[in-house]
Amino acid sequence: MRFEHTVGRILELAAAAVPSRLSVTLGDETRTFAQSDRAATRMANALLGLGLRRGDRLMYWGPMSLREVDVFFATQKIGVVFVPFKDSLSQAEAEAQIRYVRPALVVGDGIMHRQLADLQSSLGVRVAVVNGRGPAIDLEEAFARASEQPVETVVDDEDIHAIFLTSGSTGEPKGVMVSHRASWHRSLAGATRTPSCGGGGEVNMFPLFHWAGWNFLLVAWMHLRTIHLTPRADAGSIARLIDRWAPESMYAIPAIWERLLDHGAAFETGSLRWARTGTYRFEPALIERIKEKFPQADCTSSWGATELGTGTTIGDGDLKLKPYSVGLPTPGTELRIVDGELTGRSNQMMSGYFDLPAVTAETLVDGWYHTGDLAEADADGFISIVGRRREVIRSGAETIAPAEVEAAMAGLPGMDDVAIIGLPDPTWGEVVCAAMVLHEGAKLPVVETIRSHLSGRIAPHKHPRRVMQVDVLPRTPATGQIQRSQLRTALIGRAQSEVG
């Protein structure tokens, strides 16, 4: 008999094995695995009652909540494709993503009733509301009436289970389609990153609009572990979470670790056994600081992409021997460097970009995913990422399109021209930098002024963190395109000389 590797089965298996164990916490809310499975089943029946069927797409818009977890696993049980998007998006950004995805239903949090009403009037999209009342279908009422009887929908593991939205080079959304099979293997591979984890569970600092947020939840549940969610990745929130639950594992990007390490108030540091981080480059001193603060913890780092899954891992012993390396390929992943670019393939790979066959063909070539990362490998096979071939900026866990930020900056007082580039940063990997040509006599605006100008136009994570003045932007003679690599090299040199 064929055993389907579907995402819904991950929860069902955990509920069968450890029904009374905590599955998830969020602030003061908790659920056991049995409760999570019952809620997902009831929500699945509610969605079926609204007419959703296998292959439909459901978009979710709202802040993190346990009801979002219910909706996610409900879609997995009935073969509906889950598409989360960032709750801090502007209305225009959200509408662009909805026009692209064309969902059968948008499920929104009641706190966003105004935005949801605007969606209905501007796009005519079908909307349902959870966690309160709103302008459309009351999904909470449908949930309360729904049955807890198991659904009979047959889901194949080659079906797409989720589409994760990321930015292309122009800022237009790209939907990374991930199959049930691929996420099953991503979840199973999580055991290589954390060999075991008992009752304390693990902290997930990622938001649930990001593939990594769901990946870490699925990894934990695949291995029958509690996942502790936090709606805010600030030091105080994480410190309180650690004090309350004594987790044994935590992953955080370097910027979050820096916040926690600089946190002034005392909190429990003895429970952590695995301290994990990941970006393509961070300062080795960060690992020493983590180990000093959390003396029982082994450190690991990993690198990956929404399209590929987790591509590399480097363990505690090698972090000191191989500074700035992202490590070796994860089990089941094959990596190679072609003309300086890192490419990979695995059983965790995406199925392609939704409705973008040409972009898919450019990115997946003969079965190999072209990352756009420039890389080198040493004699022992350890890989280091040394730059970007593509224009998109990778800051923390986000991808940011320079052209989108440049368009949003139009009309900034005193500015003649602007180019957005990513500058290396030990905390974020890269930070968004605005290189500006000013009117004669104009003063270079501070970052806060630029952020104020961009507020409501583009999401805050796309805002520049640095601003630098240039006399002229280098452009190609024929087409006038910004020569970003040339500009980036010049500004990196200038930044280094200013520090020196």
Descriptive notes:
The protein is built from 16 helices and 27 strands. By secondary structure, it is of the alpha/beta class. Strands 2-1-11-10-12-13-14-15-16 form a 9-stranded mixed beta sheet, with helices on both faces. Strands 4-3-5-6-7 form a 5-stranded parallel beta sheet, sandwiched between helices. Strands 17, 18, 20, 21 and 22 form a 5-stranded antiparallel beta sheet that branches.
Task: Please render the helix and strand layout as text.
Blueprint: H1 7-17, E1 22-26, E2 29-32, H2 33-49, E3 57-61, H3 66-78, E4 81-85, H4 91-101, E5 105-109, H5 113-123, E6 127-130, E7 137-138, H6 139-145, E8 160-167, E9 173-179, H7 180-189, E10 202-204, H8 211-222, E11 227-229, H9 235-245, E12 249-251, H10 254-261, E13 274-277, H11 284-293, E14 298-305, E15 309-314, H12 316-321, E16 328-329, E17 333-338, E18 341-346, E19 352-353, H13 357-363, E20 364-365, E21 368-377, E22 383-388, E23 393-395, E24 398-400, H14 402-408, E25 415-425, E26 429-438, H15 447-454, E27 466-469, H16 484-499
Helix pairs in contact: 1-2, 1-3, 2-3, 2-6, 7-8, 9-10, 10-11
Tally of individual helices: 16
Q: How many DSSP E strands?
A: 27
The global form is globular
For the report, how would you describe the main beta sheet? 9 strands, mixed
Helix content: 25-40%
Average pLDDT number: 90
Would you tell me the structural class of the helices and strands? alpha/beta
Multimeric status of the protein: single chain
Which percent range describes the beta-strand content? 25-35%
Radius of gyration, taken over Cα atoms and rounded to an integer in Å: 23 Å
Poorly predicted spans: none
The neighbouring-strand order within the major sheet is 2-1-11-10-12-13-14-15-16
The separation of the N and C termini measures 66 Å
